[in-house]
Design brief:
Layout lengths: L4 H19 L13 E8 L2 E2 L2 E4 L5 E11 L4 E10 L2 E14 L2 E6 L6 E6 L2 E9 L2 E8 L1
Antiparallel strand pairs: 1-2, 1-4, 1-10, 3-4, 4-5, 5-6, 6-7, 7-8, 8-9, 9-10
Length: 142
């Protein structure tokens, strides 16, 4: 008994569907490999660091620099230092991060709200990171 044309078409369709399913990947359901490495702060609000920002009241905030480390276990450490008027600071924000494509979500361990950024090649950008109560977009590079 020979298969009919209809049976061959059905069998071919089934085989193609099975092969496509077996070979396809759905990155949204599988683990995302974290981007890792250490990056040096290069900008704050688009200005090269170190840079001094002055608010309307005349208060001065100098961001001297810092860095961010993205670890293979999904943790991060963001370091920043500078001066608020006469007060010198050297602080660290630590927590976990998750990647969705190029977008990173940073969740601090201290309970502060999560913030986002992007990891593209050898650069990391962080959006709306608070320093001395003000929000800063920070740029980091290898």
């Amino acid at each position: 008994m020979h298969p009919t044309l209809r049976q061959l078409a059905a069998l071919t369709t089934f085989a193609v569907a099975a092969f496509t399913t077996a070979c396809s990947s759905d990155s949204s359901s599988g683990p995302v490999t974290p981007t890792t490495g250490s990056f040096t702060m290069s900008t704050a609000r688009g200005m090269t660091v170190p840079h001094t920002f002055t608010d309307a009241a005349g208060s001065k905030l100098t961001i001297d620099g810092g860095g961010i480390s993205l670890n293979s276990d999904g943790t991060y450490e963001l370091r920043y230092k500078g001066k608020l008027n006469a007060l010198t600071f050297d602080l660290t924000d630590e927590g976990t991060y998750k990647m969705a494509g190029a977008t990173a979500t940073f969740t601090p361990d201290d309970g502060d709200p999560a913030y986002t950024g992007r990891v593209i090649g050898t650069t990391v950008s962080v959006d709306d990171f608070k320093i001395a109560g003000a929000k800063f977009d920070l740029g980091f590079a290898k």
